[in-house]
Design goal:
This protein is an all-alpha fold. It has two domains: 126 residues, no CATH class; 103 residues. 82% of the residues lie in helices and 0% in strands. Helix 1 packs antiparallel against helix 7 and helix 8 packs antiparallel against helix 13. The longest helix is centred in the C-terminal third of the chain and has 56 residues.
Length: 299
């Protein structure tokens, strides 16, 4: 029994660690409220950034420099890291840790089975190790991409509200730059903080606010913000009237958000059909299997 129990325990621990990494526990509401009301601290050094991570960060820390020397992460991944608020070092450490875990898990199971007198053919653990290592190496990129898309959708929703506020302030007689600053000060959340940071950077560097907004749109890969910067540039440099254009852009953003929400709901509805089909198949198998077994036994 030892050759069966020991690999099963190792496999269970590995699956549990993977499940904990994929589905982290939700923080309490009080912690989230405290985080919203906390003033961001100064940027910490690189070693302190890595010191506060979990088991994956500590395990993959020695491989961060080697992965950085290979040119990782790519520019697209760096853009997603910026919008998700994650550090490059932690991301590379997680990739390395999951790759090493996936590489060692099948090999350890194969060694344990060989020690118990039931060795597996060498292509099975070797192939499984390569597949799990590749999957573990790419899994953080997939999770990061999902998180970045979710934040981009939230930013587009906040941008629609921002456009409505600018439209109201312009209708009240405010100037373009004043409307930009006042509208950004009215909102809360991550999206409005990024807008305020861009506008404050424009004020401190004595550059035009639509230029910094355009740079923010390129950094976050949000084309709607770049379009807003272009429209505001016409208003600020050529005196174009952009109230109607801003109202149309806000309406388009709302329509796109509603269409995306409807598409996600339809996709979730389609995914719900698969568990129902599996349950129906299991029920049919549970009902008819005893009868089929009796028929085969009688033959």
């Amino acid at each position: 029994m030892t050759w069966f129990v020991v690999p099963s325990i190792g496999l269970g621990i590995g699956l549990w660690a993977l499940a904990v990494w994929l589905v982290p526990s939700r923080p309490p509401l009080s912690a989230l409220v405290t985080r919203l009301n906390t003033i961001p601290a100064a940027r910490r050094p690189r070693n302190e950034v890595l010191a506060g991570g979990g088991w994956a960060t500590h395990l993959g820390r020695p491989f961060v420099h080697s992965l950085s020397a290979l040119g990782l992460p790519t520019q697209c991944v760096r853009r997603d890291l910026g919008i998700a608020g994650r550090s490059v070092e932690k991301h590379l450490a997680e990739k390395a840790a999951l790759a090493v875990t996936g590489l060692c898990l099948p090999m350890s199971v194969g060694v344990a089975l060989a020690a118990g007198g039931h060795p597996l053919p060498w292509p099975i653990p070797s192939g499984g190790a390569l597949v799990l290592a590749a999957g573990g190496f790419l899994l953080p990129d997939v999770a990061l991409r999902t998180e970045a898309e979710r934040r981009r959708a939230a930013f587009r929703h906040a941008l629609g509200c921002y456009l409505n506020l600018i439209h109201i302030l312009l209708a009240g007689g405010a100037g373009v730059e004043g409307a930009l600053m006042d509208a950004a000060d009215m909102g809360e959340g991550w999206s409005f903080r990024r807008l305020r940071s861009a506008l404050n950077a424009a004020r401190l560097t004595r550059t035009s606010p639509w230029e910094t907004l355009g740079q923010l749109g390129e950094e976050l890969d949000v084309g709607e913000l770049a379009e807003l910067a272009g429209a505001l540039s016409l208003a600020g440099t050529e005196g174009a009237r952009v109230r109607a254009s801003l109202a149309a852009k806000a309406s388009a953003l709302r329509s796109r958000g509603a269409a995306d929400a409807e598409g996600r709901a339809n996709a979730a509805t389609e995914r719900m059909a698969l568990p129902g089909m599996l349950m129906a198949f299991g029920f049919v198998l549970f009902v008819f299997y005893p009868a089929l077994f009796q028929i085969n036994a009688s033959l």
